[in-house]
Amino acid sequence: MTAPLTIAIDGPSGSGKSSVSRAVARHLGVGFLDTGAMYRALTWWCLERGLDLTDADAVAAAARDLPLDVGTDPDAPTVSVDGTDVSAAIRTTRVSTKVSAVATNLEVRAELQQRQRDLVARIARETGGVVAEGRDITTVVAPDASVRVLLTASEEARLRRRSAELHGATDAAAVEATRDQVVRRDRDDSTVSTFTEAAPGVVLVDTSDLDFEQSVAAVLEVVAAETAS
After folding, report:
1. In contact, 8 and 144? CB cutoff 8 Å
2. Residue-wise pLDDT tens digits, 31-77
């Protein structure tokens, strides 16, 4: 029997890892896991409960109790907390500006990383494979994945993409309004996770000069090469 295909994709904000990962999973007919959404969901839950995000112990306890359900369909990924669909709520500025405070909590990371390992194994078993994306999937969550990719892009390209996504524009003002959510968050998260340089065995894919379809094709080429070998 062929072992399930596990693809781990890491990358900084605006590199395209979420949209590209969904497209790769869809093309391959396997499940999808957005691990960043898990940190966002916890942030939303803490804010809803009025927790002080600087209280590391309280946030870690919330992570252990988090009633989280993550959908794995790449065509319609969903995130629910205690039965409430928060798929849209976790993408708001309210959460985006606070998520680093949660994601840099080491006890939180340990808890969610174990949940992610369990999910990767379950999704791969149920769908025949999984594309998991995030910050430290290639090195911590799934270091033994069949294919490991670091998806990156220049800061200019990442700011432009995220600005278009959030504001529908790429002029100087829109890009500057996006800077905090991209540059500052990456700087904060890099204190606990390495996602700017490819670890040994991880294939670097730079999408700075690629459009979406080309980025997906580039990752699929890596998948084909890695699985063939």
Report:
1. no
2. 999 999 999 999 999 999 999 999 999 999 999 999 999 999 999 99
